Amino acid sequence: MTGIVTADHKKTAFVTGVTGQDGSYLVELLLNKGYRVIGAKRRTSTICTDRVDHLFEDKNFILEYYDLNDTSRTWQLINKYRPDEIYNLAAMSHVRVSFDIPENTVDGIAMGTLRLLNACKELVPDSKFYQASSSEMFGDNPNYPFNEESKLMPASPYACAKVFAHNLCRNYRLAYNMHVSSGILFNHESPRRGETFVTRKITLAAAKIKQGLQDRLFLGNLEAKRDWGFAGDYAEAMWIMLQQDVPDDYVIATGETHTVREFLEEVFSHAGLDVEKHLHIDPRLFRPHEVPYLLGNPEKAKNKLNWEPKITFKKLAKKMYDEDYELVKRLKRRIK
Length: 336
Hints:
It is a single chain. With 336 residues, the protein is an alpha/beta fold. The chain folds into two domains: 202 residues, Rossmann fold, CATH 3.40.50.720; 90 residues, UDP-galactose 4-epimerase, domain 1 (Alpha-Beta Complex). Helix content is 41%, strand content 15%. The strands form four sheets. Strands 3-2-1-4-5-6-11 form a seven-stranded parallel β-sheet, with helices on both faces. Strand 1, helix 1 and strand 2 form a beta-alpha-beta unit. The longest helix has 23 residues. It is globular and about 60 Å long. The termini are far apart.
């Protein structure tokens, strides 16, 4: 299975959340496989296309404005492009912030998925649909490692919304015979990760401290354990799911877990920095309801999809720091 689209039929993929970390890696993969890609993004007052700017010269990449809460726009775009594959990645994805704006988070994720599923059911019923589910759905379930049958015990508005959307996808798959697959992705990081997420916050701070632009790093819970992988590897898993004849749900994970403290120490060690000299714990950064331990069992994906992660935890930490170091170096030159 090469996945290369032949000249006589160019597949069309519709990707929501295209300017996010996952969207950017997925679009790169799809364009390399010969797809026409319709990228859907929310309108913002500042330009935030830096993750996909390098793709604009590709004539097969089209960017459209879209909003999870706009039913008419959803139907308009699906009807206009009639995609073969739909990848629903868009969401307010910061778990801690979802406690501050729960209505917006839930409406976008839960109802946004419903709006998109309904449009696909009526307009492109034979298309294939990927739903970005999340390991956060397992919440504070103590019975890890988690697989596709583990009990969902969401511990945030974000996770509750993801559970609704996940179950809705299963419902539409069974009720309407739609090709809908959900990827239950555990934490996946990269140099394109948003700067408010803890891994990127750590690597960017280390790069700034190393170059004399910052002195302190403020963090919350260092003992939370996460199953961290590389976003580029996980984007490949999304695509592989939609190449299957039979839709299904898959846990995408590395099968190993590390604390925030371990990630911090790995990065600072690589940078030659002393953690205790620069670290400050800020109680405001703790979640109201913490998820202490996330560990996935990716055996189903390995056996049925022939997928497994390529980038290790240590390589990921070093890759993120090294790219942030170069980013800070460029910014430093501009300041001068």
